[in-house]
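Record format v2
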Amino acid sequence: MSSSPLFAGIELGGTKCVAILARVPDEIVARETVPTTSPEETLGALERILTRWKLEHGYSALGIASFGPVELDPESTNYGSITSTPKPGWRNADVFQRLRQAACVPAKFDTDVNGAALAEIRWGSGQGFADFAYITVGTGVGVGLIVNGLPTRGFAHCELGHIRVARLPGDAFPGSCPYHGDCVEGLAAGPSLKARVGPRLPQLQHDDPVWESVAWAIAQLCHAIVCAAAPRAIAIGGGVVENQLHLLDRVERMLAKSLNGYMQLPPGSPYIRFPALGANAGPLGAVALAMDAPK
Amino acid sequence: MSSSPLFAGIELGGTKCVAILARVPDEIVARETVPTTSPEETLGALERILTRWKLEHGYSALGIASFGPVELDPESTNYGSITSTPKPGWRNADVFQRLRQAACVPAKFDTDVNGAALAEIRWGSGQGFADFAYITVGTGVGVGLIVNGLPTRGFAHCELGHIRVARLPGDAFPGSCPYHGDCVEGLAAGPSLKARVGPRLPQLQHDDPVWESVAWAIAQLCHAIVCAAAPRAIAIGGGVVENQLHLLDRVERMLAKSLNGYMQLPPGSPYIRFPALGANAGPLGAVALAMDAPK
């Protein structure tokens, strides 16, 4: 049995939360799941898990990787809260302070995608990179952008899923983002795919023309990411791209074509890749945050 | 007379280079200008200036802020060279090694816009900010993006002027970028403005409809910058925007409208501002780099 320290991680998701107790690099000591209902109920259950683990095992730090948007400005009185979510009851829910107080150890809070990006850098598809991006294309489009080893963080966290990109010629779909219409999320996330193809969704073939539109929007997002920070690689996961290797290939080709030689992607492929941690990227992201918690 | 250390800075521009010797924060001890002709001639003249200043004054570090694109990947054998410029003779010109050897002091090399961004953070419109962006709209569109106090730098430096953005409805101008057509540079830089208005250029009024197209492209660029790194403010300079206060106002309004409440710009305005260092941003950028040179 290893004597390396234990870390607690909480992944706060839109439908469920995963609590994980891990001895890094790869021993998962405990794992529990809590449905995401009201903040009172869900955070209460997570507090009890953290308290119990503290007594039974002890752990040296806590990481919380949350769905967003969240307030990460240390100057804000709402630091550590969910902000403008449409999820009932969660707007302004104070996640960080409650869970940190229950754990009573050094703690770190960030978005789920920043956590996943850091976990992929530690253990997955971005190992050894100081500059890396993690994109999830699911119910929404989330981006974790790591620059010089740290997530981008000015007055807010990365929201690159909501940039407005050049349209694929001939694609007139108005987009499904309630804020921006045809931003990347509005063009490529699950709800947009559903709106575009309707009942064909469960039987979508790889050569369905809708993938061209989805790949285009993701490729334009990658073009912007490359121009902003030139990460060494970009990992793309999430429900829309899962098992769609053809989509990642297409995004990489479209990206190279869009950059048009002005910038050359680094040699060694693929540049656009699946995350290596799969379904564990979320909770391991929280563990990666715990490892970075200020002492 | 102050006893604080002297720094040498070289701004490498497309038409001229400025060498500056400064005692920070604000005493300029010497300043010389060299026309940008061939690398041999121009770099030779700069080497002689650096050698002479070394003997006459001494200086503790050298900063070089160069037009781009430049190779900044420390793993590349071309580190410190100009890369894909159309400027005759300058492709692959090794700028950094030559000037560093002439100066024989710790030295730092970066793009002109990253240097200007760092100078604005030290002495100008971004004082105290760890996250800040500097945009120049002139012959091209250059962006210096500072994240957590450092310029973005993966396998390349920031090239956000070359992202492809949503078009202003009704604006069918094909764009003037030889690589990307209607990227931001192709829509908003000097050559595009000239191509759009032709002989009207010298008499352009503030209410000329062309400004709507220029402001739109810059606002979309700012939208992407905000989503990528949420800088505390964005400074915009360069020949196209100089003295066009109406343009910056318009960009800020369009940016807020484009974000549509999903992200709120920080209170205290303007968020979009002129650089405070004006024409000195370039050479002072080189001095800011010198101050960050590794010992």
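Chain B touches chain A at residues 69, 84, 130-131, 145, 147-148, 150, 152-167, 179-180, 182, 220, 223-232, 258, 260-263, 265-266 (CB under 8 Å).
Residues 210-229 of chain B form the longest helix (20 residues).
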